[in-house]
Amino acid sequence: MDLKNLKELANALHSFDKDVLRNYRITVGCNFLGPRDAFRELRLIDVEENLTIFGIHFFKLTLNGIEFRTHVAGIELTDNNYLSLDATDYEDWENLLKKVLAKKKPRIILDSDFRNKYGLPTTIAEQEIFILTFEKVQTED
C-alpha cells in the first residue's frame, strides 16, 4: 500500500465516499475474551507469524470498505483511548491507517448491528477487534 492509496482511503473513510470505499477490503481480527464474571479458559492463539493473542477464540473477517465504515462506532487513537466516529477527522483516519501499515493493529469498536449480524458478543468488554490489513482491490474498468 503506497502513501497515495493511504491518503485516498483516509479521505474516503472520513467523507464516507462509497465510490472509493467499494474498492477497498479491510481485514479485522475478532478476539473473544469471554465474560469477566465467569471462569474463562483463555489461551495463547497463534494468528500469524508475528501475532499471538490471548483469548478464547479468534477469527479474521474481511469486509469491503463500505461495510467497515458503516459499522465502525469508534477508533483507537492511543492505547485504550478511543474516539467516537462523529468526532473523527481526516488526520485521525490517516493516523489509524499508518498504524495498520506499521503492524501496530489498532483496535476499533463496532456497532451493535454488526455484532448482532456476525454473532459477536454484545458486551464490548468480552471482545477485542483490531484492524489487521487494508488493501485496494483491482477493479475492471
Overview of this structure, please?
This protein has one domain. Helix content is 30%, strand content 38%. It has helices at residues 3-15, 18-21, 65-71, 90-101, 112-117; strands at residues 24-32, 43-48, 51-55, 57-64, 72-78, 81-84, 107-110, 127-136. A 6-stranded antiparallel beta sheet has the order 4-1-8-7-5-6. Strands 2-3 form a two-stranded antiparallel ribbon. The model has no long low-confidence stretch (mean pLDDT 89).
Write a concise synopsis of the structure shown.
With 141 residues, the chain is an alpha+beta fold. It has five helices and eight strands; from the N terminus they run H-H-E-E-E-E-H-E-E-H-E-H-E. The model has no long low-confidence stretch (mean pLDDT 89).
Keywords:
globular; two-stranded antiparallel sheet; alpha+beta; 141 residues; single chain; 8 strands; six-stranded antiparallel β-sheet
Strand content: 35-45%
**Helix and strand element order:** HHEEEEHEEHEHE
Alpha carbon gap, first and last residue: 20 Å
Low-confidence stretches: none
**How many DSSP-defined strands?**
8
Strand order of the largest sheet: 4-1-8-7-5-6
Cα shape: globular
Residues in helix, % = 25-40%
Secondary structure blueprint with pairings:
Blueprint: H1 3-15, H2 18-21, E1 24-32, E2 43-48, E3 51-55, E4 57-64, H3 65-71, E5 72-78, E6 81-84, H4 90-101, E7 107-110, H5 112-117, E8 127-136
